[in-house]
UniProtKB/TrEMBL annotation:
Residue ranges occupied by any YlxR domain in the UniProt entry: 12-55
Name this protein carries in UniProt: YlxR family protein
Coiled coil: none
Origin species: Nocardioides potassii
Record region (Disordered): 1-30
Superkingdom of origin: Bacteria
Length: 83
């Protein structure tokens, strides 16, 4: 993920599954446990060195979509298989 903007230009956490977006990025395991821990610890702004609060809607939607994949199904655009 990277610090970016949502469709309305507000600061937001933006998924970067291909790891190609410019700027500082951070990794998050796509599990609800890691998500909840990062939110509880307020890790996103600190990891991305953002002074502004970051909306997490785009990232939450992305993680929810990942949860719909079944084991060993190809994930489009990543060249990877989920397990």
């Amino acid at each position: 993920m990277v610090a970016g903007s949502d469709a309305e230009g507000r600061p937001a956490l933006v998924p970067d599954p291909d790891r190609r977006a410019p700027g500082r990025g951070a990794h998050l395991h796509p599990t609800s446990e890691c998500w909840e821990l990062a939110v509880r610890r307020r890790a996103f702004p600190r990891a991305l060195r953002s002074g502004a609060p970051l909306d997490d809607t785009l990232l939450a939607d992305h993680l929810t979509a990942l949860a719909t994949f079944t084991p060993h199904q190809h994930r489009p655009g990543t060249g990877a298989h989920s397990s």
